[in-house]
Amino acid sequence: MNSQAKIFEIGKNRIEALSDGIFAIVMTLLILEIHVPKLSPDSPNVEVAPALIALWPKFVSYLVTFVSLGFFWVGHHIMYHAIRRADRTILWLNIFFFMFVSLLPFSTSLLNAFPQAFIAPLFFGANLAVIGWILFFQWSYVNSQPDMLADFVSAEYRKTVSARMLLVPVATTLTAVFCFWSVGISLVIYLLLLPLYMLPGKLAGAKAQRFKPAS
Amino acid sequence: MNSQAKIFEIGKNRIEALSDGIFAIVMTLLILEIHVPKLSPDSPNVEVAPALIALWPKFVSYLVTFVSLGFFWVGHHIMYHAIRRADRTILWLNIFFFMFVSLLPFSTSLLNAFPQAFIAPLFFGANLAVIGWILFFQWSYVNSQPDMLADFVSAEYRKTVSARMLLVPVATTLTAVFCFWSVGISLVIYLLLLPLYMLPGKLAGAKAQRFKPAS
Amino acid sequence: MNSQAKIFEIGKNRIEALSDGIFAIVMTLLILEIHVPKLSPDSPNVEVAPALIALWPKFVSYLVTFVSLGFFWVGHHIMYHAIRRADRTILWLNIFFFMFVSLLPFSTSLLNAFPQAFIAPLFFGANLAVIGWILFFQWSYVNSQPDMLADFVSAEYRKTVSARMLLVPVATTLTAVFCFWSVGISLVIYLLLLPLYMLPGKLAGAKAQRFKPAS
Amino acid sequence: MNSQAKIFEIGKNRIEALSDGIFAIVMTLLILEIHVPKLSPDSPNVEVAPALIALWPKFVSYLVTFVSLGFFWVGHHIMYHAIRRADRTILWLNIFFFMFVSLLPFSTSLLNAFPQAFIAPLFFGANLAVIGWILFFQWSYVNSQPDMLADFVSAEYRKTVSARMLLVPVATTLTAVFCFWSVGISLVIYLLLLPLYMLPGKLAGAKAQRFKPAS
User: Fold this and answer.
1) Coil, strand, or helix at residue C42?
2) Which of B29, D38, D40, D43 is the most buried (most CB within 10 A)?
């Protein structure tokens, strides 16, 4: 690596700092989507309570978006844990990754505003899918540049992470596609597929164990 | 710890970075709840001053929420100071912790909007209580996994932190429960219990001293 | 320092992280105070340009608040550069410091909304003054606990920083007090005093040089 | 470096932390500019879809602003990678840099609001240009203070970074100037010049190679 290369070397710690900042802000901006019911300030409990309960679809979309952001943040973190250094390609993939992460409050807002129009869950699902695919492309690119990976990364580690990185975009793409047929079924698929992402630690570990010599 | 475990190892420094970001944003978003009085731009002082003073309940809830966030941030920090590494369970407990921290601006807004309806302080108190309980569950989980704790953590240290971690959820749960009876009494309980949290450093230290051999 | 003390030891790096987050957010929230002129989307240039120019007082208050935040951030940074460790007192002084920093967007908004009412610049000036005084009290407290200061901090260093830390609260208190007499004169005092804060590096250095043996 | 100098020494890591925070927030605030179409909640797909498509100019300005912020963030990062330490001059240039970065959501909002008035793209272009120039002045200042640069920075490295740092302000100034003639042409120039910034890594490397002895 000559001195010219160093000019364009981007410290991975600053990408992580920008990432943590963006995730923190998007997570907290989501709540601005949920407005206090428009009732007079002296409304009694019997009026306020039902108005609050009627907000439940917004709380559901808050939960779904927050948990999805959680998945993306964990995925981004796992990837950068395995990366030794960043380059300009990975940097710009990140900028576009952040662009679609920052779009999520709009997509959630759209989902809340128009429950009858299937364009709303389609837009939301497509947003999640694009975020997932950019994350997967980042990992694929890093995988094709072995000197970008940390020393502890083995071939089997790469396979396990690849499988995990593919799960979210596939789940969200299926969700977006099934929207054309039924929004309800689409949401059920998403909610069933995501927990898979939380669990594969043991599955992947077990599978990898079979291929590993005792040590 | 084999290489598979490392895949799912989440650096505690990134959880801390996300946490600091979320607390910073929620703390600063709170002020957006307080709107400048709606008067014409050429209003004289005799009109603006009383309108500003009439905002006092909003300033009180700003103070209460800000200080509560301070307690949670300190609690989170003390816990992570004692943790050596994070795992997936602790990570997802954190995501849910952040979800309820980010909900606080909404709860505060509700509290400001409907002073007559007890559902408002109940919702606010319940929000604080859930944040406190998740923090306590995190600590309980870490306590059950001794290899997750830093070397300097003694049995007596764990007991002291456990007692402290339990104080906030108990205080906020009591607050939320007493709401059914009287909102005023509920707030007084909260404001009396919280300062206990600021002080126990010396009490706990004194108590621990008795059990410690001279050194 | 026994193990009990460590429970309540707050890493200064996390206070710095929270501080940088809060300053970054308050600085960027300020612009939300300036709204695009309310004109129809097909307004020609001759209508938009004057409406934009008429916003100049808001741009002035944006500049003043942003630069003031710059001073407080620099002041906070210089102080923490000289601090070895934090304790609970310093932590809670910080939480209150952040509470008044986060209040600034409201104070700026008030200043923009009511140019005729002297309560507006008084509130704004008082807000700046309180921030400055809390910063000064933090420094005074740290100064009274010599084991909290870093090794490189000499008696003369402490005097120089004390003088600098006192300048902002004095300037802002004078500003707030002169508001009762004339808002214009009050602003002029503030704008004249602040640049002193930018320059004393050389003055202080020169003065200190006289007392220092050649080395 | 005597102890007086140290008082005013600002750690470059805290400037980087403030910078990452401000970029993260401005990037995420941009989406607040795009509002969900104002239609009744039970609007069918045939009404929502066209209303969403009609938002395309806002998505274009979101993309342009986001990518521009990406360029500035990368430029700021490259510069601080080459800087050993900050001083008060560089610190205050940064505060003004942040002031104009934080202004961008307003400029984007103006661009979206008044497509007919050339003052809008002029203001937007001027905002980008000022950000770029402040970044260039920072680099020029650092270049004139060789002890502020890291050891690995060679004369040729400085030339390459200088050329890169000059590209964005020149591109944005041309954009702003051409606005007087045609907004369309102005945007085309900007979109053609920016990709140059993404590519010069290889060009600069190739050119530098010619002057370098084989090693």
Assistant:
1) coil
2) B29
Asked if residues C49 and D119 have their Cβ atoms less than 8 Å apart, the reply is yes
Mutation to test the B interface, candidates A18, A26, A48, most B Cβ within 10 Å: A48
Q: Do C52 and D110 touch (CB under 8 A)?
A: yes
Which is higher by pLDDT, C164 or C59? C59
Chain-centroid distance of CA D147 in Å reads 26
Q: Do B204 and C103 touch (CB under 8 A)?
A: no
- pLDDT value for C199: 53
pLDDT in tens, D19-60: 999 999 999 999 988 989 988 888 888 888 899 999 988 898
| pTM, entire model | 0.86
pLDDT interval class at C10 (50, 70, 90): low
Which residues of D are less than 8 Å from C16 in CB distance? Answer: 14, 17
- How many residues are given for chain D? 215
Q: What is the mean pLDDT of chain D?
A: 80
Furthest C-alpha separation in chain B: 72
Task: Extract the runs of DSSP E, i.e. beta strands, from chain C.
Answer: none
Give me the torsion for CA of C187, C191, C193, C198, rounded to 10°: 160
Q: What would the pLDDT profile of B51-60 be if each residue is shown by its tens digit?
A: 999 998 889 8
Nearest by Cα to B104 from B58, B71, B69: B69
CA separation for the pair A15, B200 (Å, rounded):
40
Count the Cβ atoms, other than its own, within 10 Å of residue D92: 14
> Residues 140 to 159 of C: which have CB under 8 A from any D CB?
152, 154, 156-157
3-class SS at B179? coil
Q: Is the pLDDT of residue B78 over 90?
A: no
> DSSP secondary structure string, A163-199?
HHHHHHHHHHHHHHHHTTT-HHHHHHHHHHHHHHHHS
The DSSP secondary-structure symbol of D35 reads: P
Dihedral Cα D120, D124, D127, D133, nearest 10 deg = -120
pLDDT of residue C9: 58
Q: Across the interface, which of D20, D74, D81 has its CB nearest the CB of A17?
A: D20
Residue D67 pLDDT exceeds 80: yes
Largest Cα–Cα separation, chain A:
72
C20 and D14 within 8 Å at the Cβ level: the answer is: yes
- B-chain residue closest to C16, CA distance: B20
Q: Chain A residues with CB inside 8 Å of D30's CB?
A: 102
Task: Decide if pLDDT at C56 tops 50.
Answer: yes
Look at residue C48 and tell me whether its pLDDT is greater than 50.
Answer: yes
Answer for the pair C54, B117: CB distance below 8 angstroms, yes or no.
no
Count of CA atoms in the C-beta half-sphere (13 A) of C56? 4
Q: What are phi and psi of C9, to 5 degrees?
A: -80, 125
Question: When comparing pLDDT for C64 and A100, which is higher?
Answer: A100
Interface test with chain A among D48, D55, D167, by most A beta carbons within 10 Å: D48
Q: Is the CB of B152 less than 8 angstroms away from the CB of C3?
A: yes
Residue from C1, C2, C3 whose CB has the most chain B CBs within 10 Å, to mutate: C3
Q: Tell me what pLDDT residue B197 has.
A: 61
